[in-house]
Specification:
The protein has 81 residues and is mainly β. It is built from 2 helices and 6 strands, in the order ββββαβαβ. Strands 1, 2, 3, 4, 5 and 6 form a 6-stranded mixed beta sheet that branches. The longest helix has 7 residues.
């Protein structure tokens, strides 16, 4: 399983789990997506599971807040897990 960690302003991290070509947000008891406050807390949550790759995708509204044109693609990087 791969993890895609979406990083948002205000220390909000949301996780999508990807298996094969299917991606699904991490949820508990059918509630909205589980929010994490750090990458360390995500590591703790998945410590007993086999993870293949972990991607960090940073979403930022910085350009828009400064009056610049927003970038089309968020920054995406492979993390060492």
């Amino acid at each position: 399983m791969d993890l895609i960690i979406n990083s948002h302003e205000g220390d909000i991290y949301l996780v999508n789990e990807q298996q094969h070509n299917s991606q699904q947000a991490l949820r508990e008891n059918s509630y909205p997506a589980v929010r994490f406050s750090s990458i360390s807390s995500i590591k703790q949550h998945y410590q007993d599971q086999a993870i293949d790759k972990v991607w960090l995708v940073q979403h930022s509204a910085y350009d828009e807040m400064c009056g610049l044109q927003s970038t089309n693609q968020p920054m995406k990087m492979l993390l060492r897990w």
